[in-house]
Write a structure and sequence with these properties.
By secondary structure, the protein is of the alpha+beta class. Helices cover 29% and strands 32% of the residues. It has a six-stranded mixed sheet. Strand 8 and strand 9 form a beta hairpin. Helix 8 packs antiparallel against helix 9. About 6% of the residues have low confidence.
């Protein structure tokens, strides 16, 4: 049996954001000659664990670099499978959490069956399992991804592999290696597995998007939080620094965004937009944007921006109990039956759902939930309601935070 080790440097902030203690975790990936454990061989296991033990330090500075070691065990002949399994069992025994990609469907059940075949104790009993594939599936629509396999996610993150093989194409490579012991074939086999394990570390950065989608709280940050060290920087430059550009006592827990600035931006044609700028608890690795029919959202590093258009228009407030109203065609509005009794019958008709309204003109902002009243619509089928924009809203930070959070829930 061949054993190889490599050391890599990684940041653990995304593991912390998942609520994991890196010191108790191992990443692992297997290579086999088929999908069915009963009729194929497990020939390679790669796993990674942390070398240094400094959990309290990493919690205080999660963006700091930590050192991990990848260990690979490979059978030179299929008969060495029990020894490979036992070596991995000894390695995994002290750890509490197994991290893998799509391992719930393949790696775990396949390896469990192999331990049973050889009457060996499984190292998986009692351990927590974290399947990155399952965790990141909710991101497919948000990130507009066609596929969610590991290599597709790595491409999205801009990662380039030296390995050009997939597991299926390596099966004949392994069989040829068993016959010849060719060092170049060994290099191909080890490289594929090593990059699978390394790639999982990179994929953990996707927790930045997941954390954003799970935002449940908006924390209000006054301007004073910006430290003196950021004086003279533009706002985007300050925010790109992340928490390093903030006062020492400023932290954001997972599932929290920090509202830093709300401003009204006017354009030359008389239109205006409301812009929210907020901090993300966990940075996103690749900038993303999402268009809404009433504005847009952008995420970049630790900064989020939500722009919503102010609409100058005549909108409608629809009465829900239209059967109790009459519609007045000449006035283009509905009135209650108790008032309509005084209107000549030729100037009124029973209201329908689509014309049971009163009109209001002015400047309006969209809302995905009815936080502000009266809630108006462009039509009865309008997916959003609208409320009258007033300048004093800019100073009502608590209601603005609720409004921003409502939009973040909607965007999910």
């Amino acid at each position: 049996m061949i054993t190889h080790t490599y050391e890599i440097s990684v940041t653990e902030q995304y593991l912390f954001s998942r609520g994991l203690n890196p010191e108790n975790c191992i990443f692992f990936d297997i290579e086999t000659t088929g999908f069915r454990a009963a009729s194929s061989h497990l020939y390679l296991i790669g796993a990674a664990c942390k070398i240094t033990k400094d959990f309290s330090v990493r919690q205080e500075n999660p963006e700091a670099v930590s050192h991990w070691r990848i260990t690979q065990w490979m059978s030179e002949q299929p008969q060495e499978e029990p020894a490979l399994l036992q070596a991995f069992a000894n390695y995994a025994e002290p750890y509490e959490t197994l991290i893998h990609f799509n391992g719930k469907r393949f790696d775990l059940p396949y390896t469990e069956e192999k331990y049973a075949q050889h009457q060996l104790s499984s190292p998986f009993s009692g351990k927590t399992s974290v399947d990155l594939y399952i965790d990141f599936r909710p991101l497919k629509g948000f990130l507009k991804l066609d596929h969610m396999n590991q290599k597709s996610l790595e491409v999205f993150l801009g990662l380039n592999r030296d390995d050009q093989y997939d597991g299926g194409r390596l099966i004949p490579v392994y069989r040829e290696f068993c016959k010849t012991g060719d060092a170049k074939l060994l290099e191909l086999l080890l490289l594929h597995n090593k990059e699978d394990v390394e790639g999982m570390f990179s994929l953990t950065s996707l927790y930045g998007y997941l954390n954003f989608l799970q935002t449940e709280q908006i924390r209000l940050f006054p301007d004073e939080i910006l430290s003196a060290g950021t004086a003279g920087l533009a706002q985007d430059e300050i925010l790109s620094v992340g928490t390093a550009g903030l006062a020492p006592d400023v932290t954001l827990s997972a599932g929290t965004a920090g509202l830093v600035r709300t401003e009204m931006i006017s354009s030359g044609n008389g239109s205006a937009d409301l812009l929210f700028t907020f901090l993300l608890a966990v940075p996103v690795p690749i900038p993303v944007s999402k268009s809404l029919d009433v504005g847009y959202l952008t995420l970049k590093n630790r900064t989020g921006k939500l722009m919503l258009s102010v609409r100058q228009d005549t909108l409608y407030y629809y009465f829900p109990d239209y059967k109790n109203y009459y519609y007045l065609p000449q006035e283009d509005q509905a009135i209650h039956k108790s008032v309509a009794a005084y209107v000549d019958k030729q100037y009124r008709c029973p209201a329908k759902a689509e014309n049971c309204y009163i009109r209001q003109s002015g400047a309006f902002l969209p809302q995905p939930e009815e936080l502000f009243t009266p809630a108006l619509r462009r039509s009865l089928k309008d997916p959003y309601t609208w409320f009258a924009w007033k300048e004093e809203l800019l100073t009502d930070t608590e209601r603005l935070a609720d409004y921003l959070l409502a939009w973040l829930r909607c965007i999910r």
